[in-house]
Amino acid sequence: MGIVPAHTSTGPWHEHTNGELRDALRHRAGPGWHLLADADEFHQHPGPLHQVISSAEEIGHRVVGGLMLDRVTASGRLSGWRPEGGLDLAYPLGGHLTHRLLQADPRKIVLAHHDVTVASGNHRSPGHRPDPDRLCAVHHFKWREGVRQDIERRAAHSADGTWQTTSPARLAEARRLLAHLGKHGGAIDTSDPRFAFRRVSLARLPANWLAEARGIVTAWRPYAYSGED
Known about the structure:
alpha+beta
């Protein structure tokens, strides 16, 4: 597509690395609104982008929020895809795997004014609360071929200290996923009602999305880790 990296980083993937690269890009972008998206995300707003920003500005909000919608194959297998078929065909189901299985933060800051600080992973912005009634669907295409190996490496390096972490969350979340895959023959259990998997599309928001997302975001609280985790 003719896109080249503005910054690169090599070596250990410490927990703070992502945020440092992101903040360097934000500084380079300068004043205005910044759209924050990971490489495996597609953002689906409840309206055109200029209207979303205008609506936030009208009510005095300096961030716009979203909620992860994890996309998986119909079988739950971690398989690859053919570009000519499209992502919706390859990963037709959307649900709440990050929230309900990993017990990780499913919230995202998807738009932020240039002078607003955004926390690690773009999950929150200290001192700023997005409008819970206009949340973006963050289609999360992480659960594909090769991700198990990525997670195994993350778990190993987080456990031995090669990759520095500030909390037990990264290692614990990796172990939860690996345990689930081990229990289900290397696949995600798409029939588990906790995850609420159903057919979704990048062309339109899921039915009842705004109410569903609002309920999750407003009720979400960080997992309380103990010495046994």
